[in-house]
Design brief:
The chain is α+β, with helices and mostly antiparallel strands and 330 residues long. It has helices spanning 22-28, 64-67, 87-96, 101-110, 161-171, 176-189, 226-251, 255-268, 273-285, 289-302, 305-312, 321-329; strands at 39-45, 52-58, 68-71, 75-81, 118-124, 129-133, 142-146, 149-154, 199-205, 216-220. The strands form 2 sheets. The protein has a 6-stranded antiparallel sheet with strand order 7-8-1-2-9-10. A hairpin with a 6-residue loop joins strand 1 and strand 2. The longest helix has 26 residues, at 226-251.
C-alpha cells in the first residue's frame, strides 16, 4: 500500500454509482481523501521519431502537475481518477529500469490497496502500452488502447469520450504534439468532463536525450477554455523554437539565415512583442526599412525598454542594430 500523503483525488462524489456520498466513500477507502474530479487523457508513442507524450484536460486546477509524467528515452505516464501521484515517478523509474509498460503497470496496481479507484496509463519508449481503469472509478469511465496509444477518462458526460479521442489520434496527421491535441479536442467534442473544463497540459519528450529534455512541456492552470489556450501556447512555443534556431545561426555569424528564422518565428506568433522586435531588425537587414521600422516603433511604444535593449546590442550580436538606431533617430 502506498502512503496516504501520496494520494490526491480527482473525482467528484456526484457521479459515483457505488457511493452515495463522500462520507460513504471515505468509510470504504479511509486512506483516500474526499473525491473531487474527473479527467480525460492520452499517452502515446510516435514510431517515426521515438517520442512519447501525454496530454490531459480536466475540471481541476493545475491538472498537469498531477497527471502528466514523462522522460526522454523512457516513456510517459498518466495517473488520474483518485490519483496517486507516485504512479508517475514510480512508473517512469520502472520503465527506466527496463520493464515494459504492461509489466510496470501490473506491478504498480498489484501493490496498491486502492487500485479500484485509480486510472492509469503507461507507454514505454518501445511503443508498448498498458492501461488500468479501476472498477470503482466514477461513471462514465473507461479506456481505449490502440496502436501505440491509450485514451482514458473518468467522470465523463458520456461513454463516447475515450473512443472519440482514440479515433481522432489515429486519424490525425502530423507530429505527436498535434495528434495529442487532436485527441483532447475530440474528447471535449464528445462531451468531456461532466462539470466542464478548467485546466489542461501536454508533455512530449524525445526518444533519447537527457532526463530533463523535452520537446514541449506546457500547462494551462486555470482558464475558461483550456484547450484553446493550450493550442495558443503550443503555437507560441513552436515560434520560440524557431527563434532559438535563429539565435544559434546568429551565434555562428550566419545573420542572413538568422534573419529568415526571426521572420518565420514572428509569422507564427504575431502577437509576441519579443518576436516582433527581432523581426523588425531582420526586415531592416533585408532592406525592407519601412516595415522594419514600423515593427520596432510598435515594440518601443509597447515598452520603452526595447529601445534601451536596441542601444545595448553589439555588432557581433546584431550587425544591423547600429543602422536601426540611426534610422529611428533620423
Amino acid at each position: 500500500m502506498r502512503p496516504a500523503p501520496g494520494t490526491r483525488n480527482l473525482q467528484s462524489p456526484l457521479e459515483s454509482t457505488r457511493h452515495s456520498s463522500a462520507a460513504a466513500f471515505a468509510s470504504t477507502y479511509p486512506a483516500v481523501r474526499e473525491p473531487r474530479q474527473g479527467t480525460y487523457s492520452i499517452v502515446a508513442f510516435d514510431p517515426e521519431t521515438g517520442a512519447t507524450g501525454v496530454a490531459v484536460q480536466s475540471h481541476w486546477f493545475s491538472v498537469g502537475t498531477l497527471v502528466t509524467w514523462a522522460e526522454a528515452g523512457v516513456g510517459a505516464v498518466a495517473t488520474q481518477a483518485n490519483v496517486d501521484v507516485s504512479y508517475g515517478p514510480e512508473g517512469i523509474a520502472r520503465l527506466r529500469a527496463g520493464e515494459m509498460a504492461p509489466e510496470a503497470l501490473a506491478a504498480l496496481t498489484a501493490a496498491d490497496e486502492f487500485a479500484a479507484v485509480r486510472q492509469v496509463a503507461i507507454v514505454d519508449a518501445r511503443g508498448n502500452v498498458a492501461a488500468h481503469t479501476g472498477a470503482e472509478c466514477m461513471r462514465f469511465a473507461g479506456q481505449t488502447v490502440g496502436a501505440h496509444h491509450s485514451c482514458q477518462a473518468n467522470m465523463m458526460a458520456g461513454p463516447a469520450v475515450w473512443p472519440a479521442m482514440s479515433a481522432a489520434f489515429e486519424a490525425t496527421g502530423g507530429g505527436l504534439t498535434e495528434r495529442l491535441l487532436a485527441a483532447l479536442d475530440a474528447g471535449e467534442a464528445a462531451g468531456g468532463d461532466i462539470r466542464g473544463r478548467q485546466s489542461a497540459a501536454i508533455l512530449v519528450v524525445p526518444g533519447s536525450g537527457k532526463p530533463w529534455e523535452t520537446i514541449v512541456e506546457l500547462r494551462v492552470e486555470d482558464h475558461p477554455e483550456p484547450l484553446v489556450e493550450l493550442r495558443r501556447l503550443v503555437a507560441m512555443h513552436d515560434a520560440y523554437v524557431v527563434a532559438g534556431e535563429g539565435d544559434e545561426l546568429a551565434g555562428e555569424n550566419r545573420h542572413d539565415e538568422a534573419a529568415a528564422k526571426y521572420l518565420e518565428a514572428y509569422e507564427r506568433a504575431p502577437d509576441a512583442i519579443e518576436l516582433e522586435f527581432w523581426a523588425g531588425l531582420a526586415l531592416i537587414r533585408r532592406g525592407e526599412t519601412d516595415a522594419g521600422l514600423a515593427h520596432l516603433r510598435a515594440t518601443i511604444a509597447a515598452n520603452a525598454g526595447w529601445r534601451e535593449l536596441l542601444d545595448l546590442l553589439e555588432p557581433h550580436t546584431s550587425p544591423i542594430a547600429a543602422e536601426a538606431r540611426r534610422l529611428l533617430d533620423a
